[in-house]
Design a protein that fits this description.
Elements: H1 2-21, H2 25-46, H3 53-60, E1 64-65, H4 67-74, H5 83-98, E2 105-106, H6 107-114, E3 156-171, E4 182-196, E5 201-214, E6 225-240, E7 245-255, E8 276-290, E9 295-310, E10 328-343, E11 348-359, E12 363-374, E13 379-390, E14 402-415
Parallel strand pairs: 1-2
Antiparallel strand pairs: 3-4, 3-14, 4-5, 5-6, 6-7, 7-8, 8-9, 9-10, 10-11, 11-12, 12-13, 13-14
Helix pairs in contact: 1-2, 1-5, 4-5
Length: 416
Amino acid sequence: MRKTLTFLFLLFAVSIHAKRDSVSVQQYEDMLLAYQSKIDSLKQANNQASLNPYNAYRLFSPTTFFHSVAGNNMSLNGDMQNSEDEEIDNTLLNVYLNRPELVSNSENNLREASVVKENIVSPIKHNVELVEKVAPLPQETEEAKVDVVVTKPNFWKIKGDYYLQFLQNYISGNWYKGGESNYAMLASSTIEANYDNQQKLKWDNKLEMKLGFQTSRADSIHRLKSSEDLLRLTSNLGLQASKKWYYTLNVLAYTQFMRGYKSNNIMTFSDFMSPFTLNISLGMKYNVEWVNKKLTGNIQISPFSYNFKYVDRLALSTRNGIDEGKHVLSDFGSMFTADLTWKFTDNITWKTRLYGFTSFSRAELEWENTISFKFNKYISSNIFIYPRFDDSVMRDEHHAYWQFKEYASLGFSYTF
């Protein structure tokens, strides 16, 4: 009996340590069931009653050093109630003596743990030591607040071209505005304001202003005369018909700033609003983008055109194709305009404007050509060639109905 209990207890103690290391809980429960079946078989074999609960606890609890085990074995008058208690004490004593490494607890620790301490007045405070982090945690970047501002699109595009130059000027004797060939100074300004809503509507506006002055020693009457004088506004409203074509309403109005004279002649050959020309036309416009977009501009054809010409000075009526004694000439016809820019290189540009109007009784044709040589951002040179045909004026003996103007200039320029 003693050997059997000792063997079972050793197995139980070893199983406790094994359970702490690697044996699963299910294996531990199965082992206890096996121990119970062995104890039951021992009880039936010896016809004994069930074991004392306290002794059973000592046998199957984690290996503990109990004071009663040593006391009972060393006492002269042992207080054992039955042989089963004696066998369990002897088994435990045998383990204490032969396998002390299996003892994991003591009776004093059990008693101390079972006492309820009620004399705690102040709460227990634990000193927590902070340890350094093994690795710093990634810091989350704070997203900056973005203010979304929705602005109304600007469909207007503004650009301009200015220059102040000195020039050599040639004018034919029958030029309709007067003037003479000489050296002079010229100021020019061209401002464009164009609207495009990126859908079907375009509205192009261009204001051209030129004013040139000249002096001549041969002129004993006029110390200062105008050599170039132009004030012209072109406005074109277009509705897109296809990728390149637009239905257009075109308005062209032009006159001059100052009086026009000839040398040693007191007669005024032209003046502000003398003449004044207004042309209103309906037609179609084609946007040009040729030669790898180096040749750009537009070509307009207007089969329905109204032309209004006015002179404030009655003396200038016949010089501008208006009946003598009348201020106004109104007629209907057709109009053609080609306004192109050909950029040969970054420094050489050719601008040309071909304008034609014809009615049942007369015809006008103007071809303006400006070749610009740009030396740097502020210095440039221009060559201007301007032939003109008008069969509504008096025929000249040498040039018939043709008129011609040309100049070359060098000076300052600025473009934005």
